[in-house]
Amino acid sequence: MLRKILLPTIFILLSWGFWVSPDFKMIVAGISIFLFGMLSLEDGFKSFTGGALEKILRNTTDKMWKSLLFGFTICTLMQSSGLVSLITISFLGAGLIGLIEGIGIVFGANIGTTTGAWLIAGFGLKIHIAAYAMPMLAFGVLLIFQKSKSLKGVGYILTGLGFLLLGIHYMKEGFETISTHISLTDYAMEGFSGILVFALIGVIVTVIMQSSHATLLLLLTALSVHQITYENALALTIGANLGSTITAVVGSLTSNVIGRRLALSDVLFKITAGCLFIVFLHPIINIVDMISSVSGIAEDNYTLKLAVFHSLFNISGVIIMVPLINHLVRWITMIIPDRKITKISKIQPLYLNDAAAEFPDTAMEAVRNETLHIWDNAIDILSMAFGFTREEALQDNDLYKIAEAQKQFNAHDIESIYEQNIRCLYEEVILFINKAGFSWEMDQSDDIHWLRESNQNITNAINISILMQKNLATYAMSSNREMKEAYTKIRVELTLLIRKLETIRLETDVDDTVFSLDYLNLLFEEHISDMNRWLAVCIKNESITAVMAASLMNDVSNATNIHRNLVEMAEMLFVKHYHCMSDAERSIQLNEDDLNEIKEQMRNNQD
């Protein structure tokens, strides 16, 4: 309801302002051009988020100081804490970084956003910046029309910078002109009530413009021509910082629980610093004066003093919050707990969300992590299908002894469990891939193809195990010793495969992983060969009936298909995600001829 009222109200107020004052048009046009420049700048940097930025982020956030430094650096370059917040939320949504690392990046970005105020106060208001804006716009537009994605990105960045400078110029001109007709300082408010009122105005203006940079620019230009008092400008700055949390909050609405926790941490950061600075504004003004005096800033240079105040606000927030980071995370986790899922409801994806779909690398990692989530659920289902619990399947114990000790084969409704825990997630993965809009020109398209195939392999293995359920339940406890032994061997070997695959998943050495998968293929083929020879002897000796033999041959084939699907899944999910090593992996992996040669050598050794 509020959203429906807000837009028409803004239109009415703008129309009234245009009618009343021509100078108001110039100020609003400057704000609009500045905001459009921010959007162009963000589009330009998004062009370079197809891998490089994400890889840097992943490798520079393992410690808090690195996260803070990265957030500061990238926000200084982008001049958009909002974009940094959205990128960080997308990484959290994809499961690439933890909450503490994400909080460090956002806190660092809050410090980085202060550099914009320094640039505007130090240079933007003292030189004729429109002269620099025009060449940037000309070259930028020219590059935007190029086919190269990188050149387009540079073009958007230059165009964005050009519009930023042009917006500053028009706002400054507008305030200088309007100062000859009216003085906004007539509406100044002193005392604590004035601080609260102007802080609230700062929040409202920032929420409307969706940019604390734009609000600060408005303040600096108005302050430079003495249209607002210094104390009111400081209160507005506090409000602008508080209002800047809206970007992270809105971005988190499409993210998972971790993304919402990050947004809350940013809100708490700004509220803590905001309350501190509102209550102790006058002592802090004295600290700003002292810092300005030491730094050589003139006593009446209020624009640079405001930049000092803005920096002090964010740095103080970091100094207060970083030592309490672990307590903060625990508290936020209590406020926003993990989503509880009932057994009767379909399980929900953990990593697939709109925030993760914003950038190619984060979307790809979200799909990979969600596929691992599917595999984790598949371990439970496949273990049950073969007559074991998850703990029995993964722990280092003798499955043959466990199978012999079983008095009955507990048949589960595997198909229903599959529908609730696997198929729904697989469908979400497909929908997410389509939503992310991957094109085959992207570097990530090959990885997405393999991940899609991995999901298909998992679902194939489970569907085949569903087909085997009746025979497993019948013959696992059969009075026919040969059939019982045969089916025990099938279900034990398949469960051991799951155990070995899970061990391989945890390996960090890629070469070991490749050789382990080759060994599993080789070993299983030997088991199948032994089974077929044993089956031929049983048929010849008439120790099993023709019906039993047919069922067993069919399930040996099914077991082979389950093995093949799971190993192929592991090849793609556990190995191919080391993208930079994929060529080396393929070169060392054994091909079919190599495997046949080794099998022949093994048979000769046995003979």
Account of the 3D structure:
With 607 residues, the protein is mainly α. It has two domains: 32-335, no CATH class; 356-606, Methane Monooxygenase Hydroxylase, Chain G, domain 1 (Up-down Bundle). Helix content is 78%, strand content 0%. The protein has 27 helices and no strands. The protein has helices spanning 2-20, 22-46, 52-59, 64-78, 81-94, 99-112, 114-124, 130-144, 149-178, 191-209, 212-224, 230-243, 245-252, 257-279, 281-295, 302-321, 325-335, 360-385, 390-394, 399-405, 414-436, 445-475, 481-505, 510-541, 546-575, 582-588, 592-606. Helix 5 (81-94) runs parallel beside helix 18, helix 6 (99-112) packs across helix 14 (257-279) and helix 8 (130-144) runs antiparallel to helix 9 (149-178). The N and C termini lie far apart (83 Å).
